[in-house]
Write a structure and sequence with these properties.
Number of strands: 0
Strand content: under 5%
Radius of gyration: 22 Å
Helix content: 55-70%
Structural class: mainly alpha
Largest sheet: none
Oligomer: single chain
Shape: elongated
Amino acid sequence: MAQVIVRNLDDTVVARLKRKAADNERSLEQELRLILTAAAGPDLGEFRERAAALRASLAERPQTDSVDLIRADRDR
């Protein structure tokens, strides 16, 4: 796995990150790893590919109109 060094962070930023990590019961390193992983999430093209694959996998599944479900619930 790769390592990254970030220099010249403001002390208040580091203090806030440490507080956030402590609030989440994680180490600073774990917190930073989660933050960076979330920030580097899939780009728009990857998202569209995943959405298209999901749509294709659900294409054959029957869909129920939510209006029918709400009406049936209200009629009970």
